[in-house]
Amino acid sequence: MDLEVRHLRALCAIADTGSLHRAARELGMSQPSLTTQLRRIENSLGGQLFSRTRTGCRPTPLGRTVLSRARPLIDEMRSLVTEAKAAAARAAGPRLRIGATASRAIPGWLRRLRTRLPDTETSLHMDVSANALLRLVASGQLDVAFVHEVEGCPLRVPDGLEVRVLVEREPQSVTLAADHPAASDAVVKLADLATDQWMVDPTVDGEWDGMRRMLRAAGLNPRVLHGDYLTAFALVASGEVVTVCQPTTRPRPELVIRPLHGDPLGVRLLLAARSGTDEAELDVVYEELAAAYGELL
Predict the structure, then answer these.
(1) d(CA 89, CA 101)
(2) Which H helix or E strand runs over 110?
(3) Is 52 helix (H, G, I), strand (E, B) or coil?
(4) Quick one: pLDDT at residue 78?
(5) Are residues 238 and 185 in the same domain?
(6) How far apart are CA 186 and CA 158, in angstroms?
(7) Closest Cα to residue 169, out of 124, 212, 210?
(8) pTM value?
(9) Backbone phi and psi for residue 260, each to the nearest 5 degrees, phi listed first
């Protein structure tokens, strides 16, 4: 079997995460598939690259040798692809490829950018994973990414990215059914939600860990459902669950949005771009994002 760049990326992911399970999730593949791929790579090279224990995977001496050669090759390939795509983009005309996690600021941001940059073709790529979006920026598949970082759960920012802070700390709110006993309160205490069932989307980077820390700090151990937030809002409206949400979430007749007492959970809002991006263009992108976010307050 001939080694390919994807094989080297898999080896680096295993080494970086220390786990086949976490590496498979990062690579977007199943653990059995990654295990099979690793076995084939080891057979091809003639030796074991990782020692597997209950606590995870650690590179063997052979594995460390391979990794020391693999990382520069991956970096060089990434640079080649990024530079080639940038050259192709310049030849095709101005364009702005935006990535973002969910935010009500996005429609206004896009509208403002179309006005400010009328000759630039703008595209949007949405993803619940901020880390995935940052990797797409680093690889040259996106130009900028507007993401949120849950407090206490730092994002893995790839080398070569420049990050600007839009909001240092945005306190998160709670969504309740309109007829919930706490819905009449201007500010809701977590203790008043002690008997409620919560819902969280675990695919959103840091969301589950952040919410779990918040509940534990309040001495709560509620039942938690996992699912997407579109489903969560439907269940909130029916009184089945409560859930955290952005303070800019649009209220509905059947839902209320309330701040949490003491602001126990916050996120940082960030705009990321590759280092070396035209500063004047990045200034425009940032300014229009800040203005669009300000319209929601």
Answers:
(1) 24
(2) helix 105-116
(3) strand
(4) 82
(5) yes
(6) 41
(7) 210
(8) 0.72
(9) -95, 140
Type of residue numbered 50: F
Q: Residues 126-184: pLDDT tens digits?
A: 999 999 999 999 999 999 999 999 999 999 999 999 999 999 999 999 999 999 999 99
* Domain around 233: 173-264
Q: Are 238 and 177 in contact (CB under 8 A)?
A: yes
pLDDT per residue over 185-224, tens digit each?
999 999 999 999 999 998 899 999 999 999 999 999 999 9
Distance CA 130, CA 146 (A): 8
Q: Which residues contact 141 (CB under 8 A, 6 or more apart)?
A: 85, 97
Distance CA 60, CA 68 (A): 12
Same domain, residue pair 146 and 282: yes
Indicate the pairing of strand 198-200 with strand 224-226. parallel
Q: Which residues contact 138 (CB under 8 A, 6 or more apart)?
A: 78, 82, 158, 159, 160, 161, 274
Half-sphere exposure (Cβ direction) of 276: Cα atoms closer than 13 Å: 9
Contacts for 225 with CB less than 8 Å, ≥ 6 apart: 197, 198, 199, 200, 232, 235, 241
Tokens of 191: 């203790």
Per DSSP bridges, beta strands 56-59 and 95-100 are unpaired
Of 30, 53, 88, the domain-final residue:
88
C-alpha 136/C-alpha 133 separation (Å) is 5
